[in-house]
Amino acid sequence: CPGIEPLCLDLADWDATEAAVGAAGPFELLVNNAAVAMLQPFLEVTRAALERSLDVNLQAVLHVSQIVARQMIAQGVPGAIVNVSSQASQRALRDHAVYCSTKSALDMLSKVMAMELGPHKIRVNTVNPTVVMTDMGRINWSDPQKSAAMINRIPLGKFAEVDDVVNSILFLLSDKSAMTTGSSLMVDGGFLVS
After folding, report:
1. Do residues 119 and 71 touch, judged by C-beta distance below 8 A?
2. Alpha-carbon distance 128 to 130, whole Å?
3. Alpha carbon distance 28, 173 (integer Å)
4. Using an 8 Å Cβ cutoff, are 107 and 59 in contact?
5. CA dihedral 95, 97, 103, 109 (to 10 degrees)
6. Which of 5, 8, 120, 131 has the greatest number of CB atoms lying within 10 Å of its CB?
7. pLDDT for 47-61, tens place per residue?
8. How far is CA 72 from CA 31, 42, 106, 110, in A?
9. Which residues contact 187 (CB under 8 A, 6 or more apart)?
10. How far is Cα 123 from Cα 110, in angstroms, rounded to an integer?
11. Could you tell me the CA-to-CA distances from 1 to 6, 151, 162 in Å, in that order?
12. Which run of H or of E encompasses 15?
């Protein structure tokens, strides 16, 4: 896309993130989508997996959002932030103790951000998808025996496609959701109601 300049950096590196994102902009919109999923049974969770997950799934969102929101406030422009969470923030999944916990924390962080940034006309929401058929999703969920148990719990009977998530994000970034902040938009095919 013309006019988009990608920044490649380790979001867990606080100083490098501050320098790179702080020099970019001006911003009106932000989508936080970086995440890691290091799946381990609860009794086998390692400190390294916990720290890496907290660094990427929570700390990076907080930090990047601070940098961008400060710029929005300084410019006096309204804005929108969408944090990509997961259905796993709402439902316990085997071997997902750390992932579920960091995504639940992300949902609550987003609510606090919405409350504190709202007076500055900055809206903050999350999208919470089920399994998404990215390249990684296809690799991890293409085995019918593995995917059947999950798909059988989704009333729409399928995993999400990338466009399902993108369209939800675009809605939350747009003026069509001008009165929506502090909300979580489930893109889960009904998984959480089953």
Report:
1. no
2. 7
3. 9
4. no
5. 180
6. 131
7. 999 999 999 999 999
8. 14, 40, 21, 17
9. 127, 128, 129, 130, 160, 164, 165, 168
10. 10
11. 10, 34, 17
12. helix 14-23
CB burial class (10 A; 0-12, 13-18, 19+) of residue 61?
buried
- Retrieve residue 193's tokens: 């109601």
Tokens of 188: 């889960």
Candidates 15, 29, 114; CA nearest to 75 is: 29
Structure tokens at 179: 């009165």
Please say if the pLDDT value at position 4 is more than 90: no
> Could you list the active site residues?
99
Torsion of Cα atoms, 74 then 105 then 187 then 148, to 10°? 150
- Tokens representing 113 are 């951000």
Give the tens place of pLDDT for each residue, 94-150: 999 999 999 999 999 999 999 999 999 999 999 999 999 998 788 778 889 889 999
Nearest to 161 by CA among 131, 190, 184: 131
Q: How far apart are CA 4 and CA 86, in angstroms?
A: 26
Give 36's DSSP letter: -
Closest to 55 measured CA to CA, from 40, 42, 38:
38
Supply the pTM of this predicted model. 0.94
